[in-house]
Amino acid sequence: MARQPRLLMIDPAWFDVSYAINPWMRPDAWSADAAGCARAARHAFEALRSALTRAGAAVEVIAGAPGLPDMVFPANAGVVLNGRALVGRFFHAERQGEEPRFLAAFRALQAHGRLHDVAQLPEGCFQEGAGDCIWDARRGWFWAGFGQRSIREAAKAVGEHFGRDVVALELVSPRFYHLDTCFCPVSGGEVLYYPPAFTPRALAEIRERVPADQLIEASDTDAAGLCVNAVSLGRTLVMAQPPERLRRVLGERGYQVDAVNLAPFILAGGAAFCMTLRLDHIAAPAAVAAE
Ligand code: ARG
Predict the structure, then answer these.
(1) What SS3 string covers 131-178?
(2) pLDDT digits over 25-36, tens only?
(3) Closest Cα partner for 241 from 35, 100, 44, 1?
(4) Minimal-distance CA residue to ligand 1 atom 9
(5) d(CA 80, CA 76)
(6) Do 162 and 84 contact (CB within 8 A), yes or no?
(7) Known active-site residue 178
(8) 91: pLDDT confidence band, cut at 50, 70 and 90?
(9) Longest C-alpha distance within the chain, in Å?
């Protein structure tokens, strides 16, 4: 029987939009109805948790912290593979206070036997976790975004830490500032991506490695709804409410979309994928050249 996917989520009690470190963030829209937005965020969080559970995942929820309103996006906290967590380094001062919190959270998971190793990247080696370093379970390598939040050198550091290949992709748009906003490897091997977010060089890297018939292009509307920021669980994709066309395209390939209204989190520039962190990815041993 396949292993049950395990996901970490962060309780949104301290979530709000009170600063702007990406173009999606609208503190004015939040403060116009802070109580209503907080209620909607709680509702959206519960809806996402239910959808993930329905799709077969075990979801573990830990507390956020006052003064760290973006600490609802655990995908940015670190990269996890084979039970080993590599804690990231946030680019913006506004989120750097999350680092010690997440470090403690990972150590607690280690104490409970859910992780067996926790390490940290060197200071200044900006790397915003799985949001910018996505494990491609089908292909057995990481895809890493750089140029907005994470630095190119970080991709190399992650590769060395885990002993796996990393394909580094340069991001060009402040609106698609993490790889997970514009790139999503799907369980069957397809990749849903938004080409305008990448440099020509990065597009070439993608197209060299993923056959054309496995590439699914997201439209401007799909990307604007943060639908690419999806969690792929078996044949289900849990994502922010997609336009009908995207649902149909995925349906034709045998995927069923479980759509969740994530509007309050989109106001912070995040959606389904970055509200979670996969803890259970296991890599098959790296291929050793045959004699
Ligand atoms: N407000 C957060 C930030 O700008 C949102 C992070 C969303 N995470 C993601 N991986 N897309 O850092």
Answers:
(1) HHEEEECCCCEEEEEECCCCCHHHHHHHHHHHCCCEEEEEECCHHHCC
(2) 999 999 999 999
(3) 44
(4) 274
(5) 11
(6) yes
(7) yes
(8) very high
(9) 67
**What is the DSSP-derived secondary structure letter of residue 219?**
P
Do the Cβ atoms of 246 and 216 come closer than 8 Å? no
End-to-end CA distance of the chain: 33
Tokens at residue 160, please?
A: 């060395």
Q: Compute the distance from residue 73 Cα to the ligand 1 centre, in Å.
A: 6
In the chain, the amino acid numbered 64 is G
Place of tokens 């938004």: 194
pLDDT digits (tens, 9 = 90+) for 54-82: 999 999 999 999 999 999 999 999 999 99
Report the separation in Å between the CA atom of 5 and the middle of ligand 1, taken as the mean of its atom positions. 22
Ligand 1 center to 236 CA (angstroms) = 23
3-state secondary structure of 205: helix
Q: Which parts of 22-166 fold into alpha helices (H)?
A: 27-32, 34-54, 93-96, 98-111, 152-162
Question: Cβ atoms within 10 A of the Cβ of 97, count?
Answer: 14
Nearest-Å Rg of the Cα atoms of the chain is: 18
227 labelled catalytic: no
Q: Which of 37, 133, 178, 184 is catalytic?
A: 178
pTM: 0.96
The three-state secondary structure class of 73 is coil
| C-alpha span between 235 and 228 (Å, rounded) | 16
151 close to 126: Cβ distance less than 8 angstroms? yes
CB 179 within 8 A of CB 134: yes
Which amino acid is present at 135? Answer: W
Of 177, 229, 237, give the one whose Cα is nearest residue 56. 237
DSSP string across 227-282: TTS-EEETTEEEEE---HHHHHHHHHTT-EEEEE--HHHHTTT--TGGG-EE----
